[in-house]
Amino acid sequence: MAIFSKSVEAAHTAVSKAEDLLSEWERKATNARAEAERLDSESGAAILADESAAESITLKIHSWERKARAFDQAAEEARRKLAAARRDALEAEAREEDKEGSAGRRKAEAHSAKVAALVHQLEVLDECDWGRSPAKDPITGELVGSQRGLGYRLTVEAERHEIRAASIRYFLATGRIPDSYFEINEVLGTTFNAIARILNEGDNIPASLYVARDAGLTGTAEQA
């Protein structure tokens, strides 16, 4: 599930503008080269018809070639700005995932505190221990620990945002989409539980990373 906020939306708008600018310079460069090639291909007949036109035709060809080179340079600069805009958009998305993760953690902790207080009240009132009902394996029907309540689900959702933020930062650092929690922990120094867990499930990996990868965005390690 993608994150939507004003900061992320503004970053995506900047990417769209950078893409449009790059397309414009590339279009101008292509057209300039095409015009230079057209003039060159037609120059022979024109010069044969009027030898005095040779100099002006050559100047026109060189002029369009210079324009093409200038447009190419502008396009290269636009590519650099587009790459920076794409990085900024990913960083904005990671910050929003951080916010969602922190808010989710606070919500889970507040809920768990309420549950603990109520359990304590029950234990005092009933003068015995209270706990969650046993959970059953959906296939075998065997008892497998205790049921997990809302607090657990809130914690899982908060961690999902933390995983997405970490996946983005891993990509920004390496230019690669992570394959495992081990990789993320090694590069970022995070402490996600990596035992018997699959990273690439659900929407742990933001779709924006696949878009960035396919667009050729590189990581800081690759740029060094």
Task: Quickly list its features.
single chain, 224 residues, mainly alpha, two-stranded antiparallel ribbon, 2 strands
Topology:
Elements: H1 6-49, H2 54-126, E1 134-136, E2 143-146, H3 150-174, H4 181-188, H5 207-214, H6 220-223
Antiparallel strand pairs: 1-2
Overall geometric form: rod-shaped
* Total count of helical runs of at least 4 residues: 6
Spans of at least 5 consecutive residues whose pLDDT stays below 50 are: none
- Main β-sheet description: 2 strands, antiparallel
Order of helices and strands: HHEEHHHH
Average pLDDT level: 93
Q: Report the C-alpha radius of gyration, rounded.
A: 30 Å
Q: Tell me the helix content.
A: over 70%
Strand order of the largest sheet: 1-2
Q: How large is the share of residues in beta strands?
A: under 5%
**Secondary-structure-derived class:** mainly alpha
User: How many structurally independent domains?
Assistant: 1
CA distance, first residue to last residue: 32 Å
Total beta strands = 2
Structural overview:
The protein is mostly helical. The protein has one domain. It has six helices and two strands, in the order ααββαααα. A two-stranded antiparallel sheet has the order 1-2. The longest helix is centred in the middle third of the chain and has 73 residues. It starts with 5 loop residues before the first helix and ends with a helix.
